[in-house]
Structures
1.
Amino acid sequence: MKRWIIFTFKLLLAVMIISPFTIFCAAEEPQKPEKVYSIIYIQKPNDWYIKQAELWKKKIDKNPKDNEAWHNYYNAVRYARFTETIDTKEKKEKLNHIIAEMGKAIPGSFEYHYLKHKTNCDLWGLCCQGPTSPTGRITDRPKSDRHFYARQRLFVSHFKQK
């Protein structure tokens, strides 16, 4: 019986000594910026997008020439409260401000041009009508472009009718 009491006391003492370290180690680690994928592929909670926007902004502040950081920052801001705010004036102004800042930091990059186009188009990405000919006819365009722009016009006209 005496051994049992001593064993229990030692075990309790060990738990009391180790517990503070366990709690300290279990504390939440600071988050690292993660790649922000399109919400079509991976959907995260709104708080996650807000936190990622903050983390990517900090990374941009450290290195404004980081293309990946700009792209992920833009996506995090865009997808935060996406369904509620995507068509609001405030969201569009914020995204245009990010694009303007990108233009100063990484003007010739793929990410800048891609996100600039994405921001200035509607949700379907159908803002560009392609090169126009003097007569405005599709047949006057280069042969490689004719079929693409013909299909695009059919697609756009289909959705405008509805």
2.
Amino acid sequence: MSESVEKEDKAKKTKECTHCKEYIESLKRLQAEFENYRKRTNNAVEQAVATGKEYAAAAFLPALDSIEEALKLSQDNDPGIILIKKQLEKALGVNGIVEIVALNKPYDPNFHNVVMAEEGSPQSTVTAVWQKGYTINGKVLRPASVKINK
């Protein structure tokens, strides 16, 4: 009888071990799924922040254009307007928004929108900038509207 009891105990322990292994595997899968969920959520949050910055920056660019136009029209280069322009440019720069330098550069369709083209040399060179373009963290926020030689 003791031998059969030992066999039953051994079978019971083996069954319990199998259940433990199943629980451990299930726990490992659950941990991996949670880690993937956490990464996806972090990526989604980062993307939402980046998109929000893009929208906010795009909303401020017309104001910066207007300030620059006001400075062009101002006879005495009003120091107040200059200060506002510098503050706005600094705020944009801190958030990764950078002006696209276009004048006298080769035409690049990724960064420039041709508004006017005329015969001239050197070919495919930006000769005038009608509206400044900007990038945000290397991505074009607004292409520069330019005149080129063709």
3.
Amino acid sequence: MKKQRTFSILLGVVVSLLATCSFLNAQTGTTGTVLGTLSDPSGAAVADASVTLRNRATNSSTTQTTNSAGQYTFVNVAPGDYEISVKQPGFRAVDVPHVNVDVAKSYTVDLKLEVGQVTESVTVTESVAESVSGTVPEAMSGTVPEAVRAESVSGTVPESASVTESVSGTVPESA
């Protein structure tokens, strides 16, 4: 009887651990990442700038300070429509009103700050592209599938923004 009770307890612990591991594994890949670099008109990094990411639906926000290389990173960003605001004394404020974040994707929003008063602002109206990593199929034979072209940014990107879409892999020479 004692062996059966010990076995039951051990079995319960193992089942609980397996259930917890399965639950934690299911949690991966439910958020995205927004990152970028701030630079001044000469291309130098802007350190210690305040970068705010605001969810437009919930109005909740989080703020990061750029590092010495002018970089900021927002991780574990829930899917949704966001606004990025940048403020730094000696520069005009910059707003990117629409950054659509999807699950398991990374979005790079590099911004060039313009000299001016914080009360002046620049609004970036271009779409923000995502960074995609994976293997480019050999069957592409120099053409880009419609699904990839649909996500590309068209038009002129203003000097105050640099929108990046990168795909890692090998592109055939005929491309």
4.
Amino acid sequence: MENKLIYKEIAMKILVIDDSRVHQQSARQTLQGHDLTVVDTYDEAYKLIQPRIETNRKGQVIPKKEEVATPFDVVLTDLLMPTGSRIQKSKKGNWLADPGEFLGPEMPVGFALALNAVLHGAKYVAVVSDGDHHLDPAMAMLDRLGAYKSGVTRTPVRFEMNGSHVGFFRVQDGDGKIQLEDGTSGKNWGEILDHILSAPVTPYMLE
């Protein structure tokens, strides 16, 4: 049965989060025709996924004059990225002037970003990494949650959360990656999105 590439037939508002320029380029190449936003830091993604809500002293939400942005239909994020200033406050409690000891090193922030996206209205969410599962335990975790297989026989999407389809995938050359125009190999975000849109939802590994 031929893959009909459903993601090309439906225009969607998509956020891709990845600190690799190659994978940013592959997002722009494989997700053409969509309302696409590409960012490379946790902080940028956090602000876009979870708009700031202001409250008064009584804890009541202050209505904003400007129209609230509609949520993303799709959020696709890398797993390991440098942590942002919102992850860890310094001892002084000021994360802007003195961001704290955890600013910089890579951590598996993709898990938190994916759950935030689900909580704020994204209907299709995926954490996608192309790292080596022998070199980082976080990469090995993705294999446990759903080894990615493209093509006709598709790995089931593992979870349905809050009405959203959510997948956690480690991709590799030949499965979930694509050769770009400059010869480099990037994540095939389009294929991954099509997978999330059309693969069955199941909480159990059927292989």
